[in-house]
Amino acid sequence: MIARLSGTLVEKSVTQCVIDVHGVAYRVVVPLSTFTELPEVGQPVVIHVHTHVREDAIQLFGFHVPVEREVFELMISVSGIGPKLAVNILSGIAAGELIRAVKEEDLRRLTAIPGVGRKTAERMVLELKDKAARIGWEPATGQPVTAERGGQVKEDALSALVNLGYRGAAAKEAVEKAIREAQEPQSLDRLLKQALRFLAG
């Protein structure tokens, strides 16, 4: 399976692009959010890819950031939502706003997306709410972070504090307190700063 393409942008439109990778050209379907981030034709480009395999075709769907791909893959796990509709949805709403709407069961916002009716919106909430809870947003950067990434940030913060000379138990307590008080995923830099405040206090 192709997970990422890194090459030269050969063509682009609002729905797809073509990337040349060492002489092999790949046609990739993209949402509008990714199209707006594409460089000029002839420039280097990196696209995160979902490879969709059917009996009669193999299609590549590309995204500017990995979390867009993750949200896309969550959507196509919903009954009645195929790759084409999932791309259209991401063209009509930012990935972060979509996740928030699902978490908050905001059917009004979901049904405002072109192509999404009430039944589809209800299925999205029903089937994705628990999965969407694993995705949050880093307030420092506005970038998405998965629960897996969040766990890695916690481990990195603990390791950094121990390397600075703090005892493991104290470092762990400070990091966990910082996470609890933030009530949302943190970047490593912000998490470390907050944990250091607790340790200093």
The CATH class of the largest domain: Mainly Alpha
Number of domains: 3
| Biggest sheet character | 5 strands, mixed, barrel
What structural category do the secondary elements indicate? alpha+beta
Tell me the helix content.
40-55%
Proportion of residues in β-strands = 15-25%
What order do the SSEs take from the amino end to the carboxyl end, as H and E? EEEHEEHHHHHEEHHH
CA-atom Rg in angstroms: 20 Å
The largest sheet has its strands arranged as 1-2-3-5-4
What does the overall shape look like?
A: globular
CATH superfamily label of the largest domain: 5' to 3' exonuclease, C-terminal subdomain
Indicate the CATH topology of the largest domain. DNA polymerase, domain 1
Structure description:
- The strands form two sheets. A five-stranded mixed beta barrel has the order 1-2-3-5-4. Strands 6-7 form a two-stranded antiparallel sheet.
- Strand 2 and strand 3 form a beta hairpin.
- It is 49% helix and 21% strand.
- It is of the alpha+beta class and 201 residues long.
- It folds into three domains: 60 residues, Nucleic acid-binding proteins (OB fold (Dihydrolipoamide Acetyltransferase, E2P)); 68 residues, 5' to 3' exonuclease, C-terminal subdomain (DNA polymerase, domain 1), CATH 1.10.150; 57 residues, Helicase, Ruva Protein, domain 3 (Orthogonal Bundle), CATH 1.10.8.
